[in-house]
Amino acid sequence: MNYLVRVKGLLFLGLLSLVAISSCDVINPEEQVPAYVFFESINFQAGLDQGTSDQKFPFAEILTGDFNLGIHEVPSRVPILLEGEHTLDVFPGINENGISSFPNTYSPLKFDEITLDLVPGEIDTVVIQATYRDNLSFPIVEPFESELQVFRNDVDGDAETKIALSDIGAFEGNRSAQIILTKDHPRIDVASNRSSVLPPDGSPVFLEMNYRTELEFAIGVYWNTIGSGQQSSFTNFINPKEDWNKVYISLSDIFNFIISESGVTDWQIGISAQLPIENGDFIDETRNIWIDNIKLIHLQP
Fold it and tell me: What does pTM read for this prediction?
């Protein structure tokens, strides 16, 4: 073989190898090693006159700069493809209206700013700190510790169906609210004290509540207008739950509708329930509902 031809052949094979290696680098680039942040828990602290610090925030949305890292369960370990000092904005989240398929950030809370020195391959462990925003109003904070609790307005006309206070199995403190329904008194419709102060137009409005219940019950709003009298809307239904649970109910749409009405004089939060019926008869002699720590929250008027 001609020596020059052989050298040219070897050079050609070498170039092919370099092209192949370069192509592999393009097709299979070296993967960036992420830094990790383990979000261990959420520590929530209510302020003075803001009621219980009990919470159920199973999620957090995480942002840094222009990057939204998504909504993650807490606790969880989150990979972050950044290096060096960065500030994470962390927004605690809820299952809005108790529906697990609708995780959402909880707008009454401040977000937590967490500054970390991110190192690829290393794990930082953090506890998210949560408090209420400064510009909130709490028209109802009811821990059901006093006979002067606010849900004393009888709507159904049956004096035997009411919210009583019980120290048996109380969720928090000394007492919780109890509703007892029987075949002789199968329904309750009760409301909070009247208020004439409406939330600002477009304000998010949330009701927080601890509960356990042997039957479905509903949370809604009554309101009165000049000329039309009392109206109501009950669209939030609470399913039976054997153990104490926490729910965050959005009443924003109802209150935005009420605000749009003319001649509204006042409003009340309502609780409604009835013994279940099957084949035309009540299926049980009696069933119970237990409630604690009702809060109504909206932006300051």
Answer: 0.87
